[in-house]
Amino acid sequence: MPKPTKGPRLGAGPAHERAILAQLATQLFEHRAVMTTETKAKRVRPLAERMVTFAKRGDLHARRRVMTVIRDKSVVHELFTEIAPAMAERKGGYTRITKVEPRKGDNAPMAVIELILEPVSAKQAVVNDAEKAVRRAAKQAAAKVSAESAAEDAVEDDVDEVTDEVEDADDSPATDESEDEKD
């Protein structure tokens, strides 16, 4: 069961907080960036990222789940057709919060929350490719080591068999010669 947040809920009760966050998420998807207080920006971030994750799935159930929060059908359509495909390569971290100067009237700390629509950087793609190559090489090395150890075991078994045969061959003529000398 989700644990409710303690303390004041953005100035009102929980229903009003849900309404505020839903409206902020709607404005974020409509305008791609919203200036708000730091607290509201931090509270809307998980909600917005969850909505983008649903939009990336793209099925009917995901669309209906998003529609429970974002009531504007045009914004939901924009989220599913424009924003989600732009985020297809990104595994998470769809939003960015940047602190800006305090509000003039009451000196409240302000922030801009925006969607990160830039594609994953080429540098990050190179890093991901390098990590995959390292993992692949490690698997191949492990397979090679296991194959070599199996070959070494087979060679050791063959050597043991040959030494046993040689020892048996050495023992049997010696016993025959000693028996011949006794006669």
How would you characterize the overall build of this protein?
It is a single chain. Helices cover 66% and strands 9% of the residues. Strands 1-3-2 form a 3-stranded antiparallel β-sheet, with helices on one face. The protein folds into 2 domains: 105 residues, Alpha-Beta Complex (50s Ribosomal Protein L17, Chain: A); 63 residues. The model has no long low-confidence stretch (mean pLDDT 86). The protein starts with 13 loop residues before the first helix and ends with a helix. The chain is built from 5 helices and 3 strands, in the order H-E-H-H-H-E-E-H. It has 183 residues and is mainly alpha-helical.
Query: How are strands sequenced across the largest beta sheet?
Result: 1-3-2
Which regions contain 5 or more consecutive residues with pLDDT less than 50?
Answer: none
* CATH class label of the largest domain: Alpha Beta
Secondary structure: number of strands: 3
Label the structural class: mainly alpha
User: Kindly state the mean pLDDT as a whole number?
Assistant: 86
What is the CATH topology classification name of the largest domain? 50s Ribosomal Protein L17, Chain: A
SSE run: HEHHHEEH
What order do the helices and strands come in, and which of them pair?
Blueprint: H1 14-31, E1 33-37, H2 38-57, H3 60-67, H4 73-86, E2 95-100, E3 110-115, H5 122-182
Antiparallel strand pairs: 1-3, 2-3
Helix pairs in contact: 1-2, 2-3, 2-4
Give a concise summary.
This protein has 183 residues and is mainly alpha-helical. The protein has five helices and three strands. Helices cover 66% and strands 9% of the residues.
